[in-house]
Design a protein that fits this description.
With 524 residues, the chain is an alpha+beta fold. It is 42% helix and 25% strand. Among the domains are: 160 residues, no CATH class; 75 residues, no CATH class. A hairpin with a 5-residue loop joins strand 13 and strand 14. Helix 1 packs antiparallel against helix 14. The protein is elongated, with a radius of gyration of 45 Å. It starts with a helix and ends in a 15-residue tail after the last strand.
Amino acid sequence: MIKQSSLRIYSVVTFISLTIFFFSSCGSEKKVDPGKIAEYNKPAVVYIETYWKGKVSFPEVQINQDALTRYARMIYSSRRMTEEQLIMELINEILNRPELYVVPNPNVMKEKEVMSGASGSGWVITPDGYVVTNAHVVKVDDDELKQMIIMQAFQEQINEDIQVTIGDLQQMGLTLTDEQRQKLANVYASFYARYMTLLTKPVIQTFVNLGAAIPGYGNVQKGYPAEIKKSGEPAPGKDVAILKINANNLPTVTLSDEKVKIQDRVIAMGYPGVATFNPMLTQDQSNIVPTTTAGTISAFKKMGTGAWEVYQHDVAITHGNSGGPLFNEKGEVIGINTFGSGKYNSQTGSWEEVQGFNFAIPATIVKEFLNELNVKPEQGKLTQMYHEAIDLFFEDHFEAAKDKFKEIYDASSAFPYVQEMKEKCVAEINAGRNVAMFPYTYVFAGAAVVLIGLLFVLVVLPKMKKQPAVVIPSVTSVKTTVEEEVKKISESTTTSSSTKFCTNCGEKLQSGAKFCPSCGTKVM
């Protein structure tokens, strides 16, 4: 038979276990709804633009008039033709043998400043402005950069010259065929490839953009100049860069410490160019928002010398996603999307992208870069509040969510998407879809009181009953004791009051004495 004390212990343990389970389950980590992951992290997933600019010089294109005149006289003397026929004949001669007629003008040098750029994705890792992206999004080799500047100027100048030439011919009533236009482009390309040079050292500027344009409010934080604090090498190197922008109270993402496994569900966020700048969409900044796609981890592959691995996954990403985060099902970053797969098309001679086989650099590599800079990932207070507000929004507590978003806005009006979410809350409230908050505080307080009371009844009270019994004296015995004490005090008082002492020397006097035995003073 089970003892009563054992039953008490069993009851207490069971109750405490259930209570701990109830309370701990309220805040335990678990898989997060993909929609929440997107909303949690949207403010911290940033659009990164890198611009490079430089100045080139080149001589003005000039036609060798002497050579062209000799050719004109030769053909005109051999056969009669109209002026229009003669001009077209001369044009074809120039297009077919440009090396004889197209020459630089030594007296006229032109300069052209060009700007170009690229874009990618990134994510904020600390509230004070540290940002993670790919190295290849923000870093370009010097020689490659010079070539890019020249090619940009090259293409722009060719297009300008072609438009001018075609316009001049049209004024003369002449039109070039497609074949002639292609030959004209080749003539200019050959000329500028030979004579165009870089005049100044290229300048690179990187900007980190947070949020999107909101009608009536403009852009929510856009275009922070960024400093490259540390950069690896583009793939197959450790393609990671850490940027710093001058800002505070920024939204952040959380880095994961968990082990990644094959077939883990993952979510990518970023700014793919084909979706962000699709020509069918409205061409304004309100469409520059992160795109969210999902898939699974499919393999681990070795990089470079085999000293480290990358995650292979089938999440749809493309150009523009580079540098963006790859999340696990808890909404934590496990990697940085870096490159995809492709194959050479022998028919077109071009490199074609193959979807479904993409790669992310693990978060452990990102942590190496952060550690070298003594940067510790941190979730800011406003980010925590934003997550709480999103939770309330998803639970249809729109009134409470609106108040929370307002609290964030009051603390930092630049926090991305807060104003937009406030307006969504108002719309839901006006539509009558708000759900009042359940009084969890009172429930938890009541549960705590019940727990304390039950512990007292089951644990403390039984122990009190086991203490040795206290003997309480009867009323009669108490009365007798009191009377005896009173008698003693009375006798003591009487004795004390009948004793006399000499007023002169203080000697104790005998009862009935008339004079002090010590000093002889008469007793009064």
